[in-house]
Amino acid sequence: MQNEIVPAVPPAPAADPAVRHHYPLAVRQASLGAAFGLFLKTLPYALARFGILIVVSLVTIVWGVVTFGGAAFAGNKIHPVVGWGWFAVGAGVYGWAWHFVVRYALYLVKCGHVAVLTELVTRGEIGNGAEGMFAYGKRIVTERFAQTNVLFAMDLLVEGVVRAFNRTLDWVGNLLPVPGMQGLMNIVKALLHSASTYIDETIFSYLLARNETNPWRGGQEGLIYYCQNAKPILKTAIWVVVLDKVLTVVLWAIMLLPALLVAQLFPEGSAAIWTFGIAVLFAANARSAFLEPLFLIMVMTTFHVSVENQPINLEWDARLTSLSGKFKELKDKAAAWVSGKPAPASA
Does the chain have fewer CB atoms within 10 Å around its N or its C terminus? Predict the structure, then answer.
């Protein structure tokens, strides 16, 4: 019997070690339409954020009335020192509550939202397909609670590195090849600076997508990938800022026009003042709750599409180290996390 010769199956090519991530991608194109679709799918998170902001705003108004009113009353009826003391305590307690309670609570909600968005961007569904988005977001934030807290502290480092990098961009001038346009160049750089506020959340999404166990190392490599893909990411960010200005004007007009109408109908009463105040409250919080997540999704999807299967260029590691002391601090914390040592304190 003649033996059948079976050709050897070539081994699968090894993953390129220079590519620091291997995760699927369900969103293949970064566009406003794709971003808006993801925003609508996760609208409950935006509504939750809006509700929290409204409650916080109302509490702020009541707290302000009690603080200023109580200080004025105590200062007039008891002693000026008592009034100033009342004001200092009221303002101090509010500042503490905002920084350590409200800001952190909003941050956790944002982390849950980013976790859900990352799952939709990479897999196209949430969890196993039967898990609700709030349950999934809570589970991811709980499972990665230590890393989530690290990322809360990492925010200032990421922001510092991005600002230092943005100041060195050479290609911005190519966008405006007109002599004597230094003033306009400064405006563009200001836009880049403003748009960079979404990069830290984008890097958090990147850490979740690659299932990173060392958030400092993931942040370090995420920043390198950001620099490698600065053109598409920052061009998207510029459009984000332009859309922000336009949509904010539209939003404020929608909210304030009814208030102006009430002022015309009841010019002598307090109804116009209350209506105007409520309109301002809703407009400011609506921008934060609905527009900012949309713009974040635009930057986030551009990042994920740009870095797909892309090798990391470690020359950027040396460049960023020389450019920003905060990047070196990020590297030191990454090394300490790997070795199990406590992360070095910030200088």
Answer: N
